[in-house]
# Entry
Amino acid sequence: MIIKSLLDTDLYKINMLRVYFHRFSNRMGKFTFKCRNKDVVFTPSMLKRINEEIDSLCSLKFKEEEIQYIGNLSWMKKSIGFLEFLRLFQFNRNYIDVQLNQNQLKIEAKGPIFMVSYFETFILSIVSEVYYDAMYPEMDYDLAKSRLNDKIELLKSCPLKFSEFGARRRFSFNWHETVIKTLIEKVSKDSFTGTSDMYLAMKYNIVPQGTMAHEFLCLGQGLDSVTLAKSQKYMFEQWADEYRGSLGIALSDNLGIDKFIEDFDLYLAKLFNGIRQDSGDPKVVAEKMIKHYRNLGIDTKSKTIVFSDCLDFDKAKELYNEFKDKINVAFGIGTNLVCDMGISPLQCVMKLVEVDGKPVAKISDSNGKLMCEDQSYINYLMSVIKK
# Structure
């Protein structure tokens, strides 16, 4: 059984789940899976095991100590109704379907958004581990351990702050846990600031990290109560109203950095602690945000940029040295920590593509990350962004 706890997922899934439960419980969502690797082949035996693992996932419920852990997070302490909902939460197997089509996985989760959103990271973890277990059953971990130690050595000469963000693309849970234990043992707390994986954060008493994902901002596009042009700003306002100053790192690239800056007015720029850069040229995004903060009269050293797009430690070191004197800098590093095994890692995603039967989409600052089943909607969305 790959997933043994409903906490073995990214913190932002729980954060978003609370907002969905409180504010959007009547919305229906559709999530679809995509593997971006062109040369990856999935087999019938992999499909069989993936379905078995999802069956097991759907049998899980939160344990009482896990509910208490969530309830002790500072921003969750007063959310009594949500915590009671979590006590009752269990995945509905009827909401998710997995098939094989010409050696490619077709996965679709469809149902109330506060139920199906939580599938995402679990499905990606399951697919990754099933694939790697089938393709590399005799993995030699010496290379991975050596590469991890090289990263740790680099940190001795560069005191950058980073969190581990790799649950969705890890080689395996066991290796993920080994990485966390090694970082705790060998890296200072000032540098290694925590993990996005709540189960490992709870088990090893380290800080859980994360705020929101792109799906949250995409949800706004499917609402009749707000115009498409204002949907991103509306969702930031909903987040701020829900969490009242906590969890203040905003995603900057859901509709591109230029639209983000347009929406991120003085009110939001003061309200949020900073941004997370997850696509595009990180240097361009950082310079644009620094300029935006300065134009608004905001001290950039009071704000933070979290870089999290396909990072390794050499890239992080370069970005740290370039921007550390201009703005607070932090990093979220995932695949390079938990799947640096000397193989080509899977690049799999599971994205929200519909809300209440209407298309929604993330317009990334990088090519190749867009997922939408309706090209006419993409054309319309692009025209709205550019106005």
